[in-house]
Design brief:
single chain, alpha/beta, two-stranded antiparallel ribbon, 233 residues, 7-stranded mixed β-sheet
């Protein structure tokens, strides 16, 4: 299975990161020598992704100015500009045309640091023939609980795992998504669970950091300093 395209979510307001995000979008906050978003883009490139669409809303022009056409990453980058904040579900739905004729594609958050082997996720996704494969990690306080067993997502809002923001999808995900603000898991994956045999879950036990708060940003900076950056690129 060849994955060529991905969507990177970067439209959020970053409200929990204020005052750092008053003049800069969260994806452009520095981590080591680069803005946070660069690590997501290089991660996708390292696993063979060729084209990425980034959704934009809050201070989106700054993200577009920084990332450009993607040549500095070895990628082709395009943009889906939102006039109102659409969430992960609505944002993906708006970019549906970008994935025309693609059998599979990746979605990822622009504020996620992870060292998951995406090639292993691809193998599991192909083996299970599922319309969606979520990369999950052990649950942490503050995140929605997911129930996972035997490489399957069983339930949302209970269990001992969380969603890392990284996922492989098929075009079936577009069927339940409304053309308005929505959540990719609650309004996309959960309805799919009612109509397909199973949704796949890949349990990642390595490094993962969601930079959503000032505290998590500080932790990411400390982890960066301790690891000399090699683990995160």
């Amino acid at each position: 299975m060849k994955l060529k395209k991905a969507m990177l979510f970067a439209a959020g307001l970053g409200e929990r990161m204020r005052p750092l995000t008053l003049n800069n979008p969260k994806p452009l906050l520095p981590l080591g020598p680069r803005p946070i978003i660069d690590y997501s883009l290089f991660y996708l490139k390292n696993f063979g992704i060729e084209e990425v669409v980034i959704n934009l809303f809050y201070l989106g022009e700054k993200i577009e100015q920084h990332c450009g056409d993607g040549k500095n990453y070895g990628l082709k980058i395009s943009y889906s500009k939102e006039t109102e904040l659409l969430g992960t579900g609505g944002g993906l739905k708006k970019a549906e045309a970008f994935f025309k004729n693609e059998e599979t594609f990746v979605t990822m958050n622009s504020d996620t640091l992870i060292n998951c082997d995406l090639s292993q996720v691809m193998e599991l996704h192909a083996e299970q023939k599922s319309p969606a494969t979520l990369v999950v990690a052990p649950w942490q306080e503050g995140y929605t609980r997911l129930q996972v067993a035997n490489n399957r997502l069983l339930d949302v809002k209970q269990g001992e795992h969380l969603f890392t923001g990284l996922m492989i999808l098929s075009p079936k995900i577009f069927e339940p998504l409304p053309e308005k603000k929505s959540n990719l898991i609650l309004d996309g994956v959960v309805p799919l669970m009612q109509t397909v045999k199973s949704i796949t879950a890949f349990a990642h036990e390595g490094y993962w950091r969601d930079i959503g708060t000032l505290e998590s940003y500080q932790r990411a900076q400390e982890e960066w300093a301790a690891s000399h950056h090699n683990r995160l690129v």
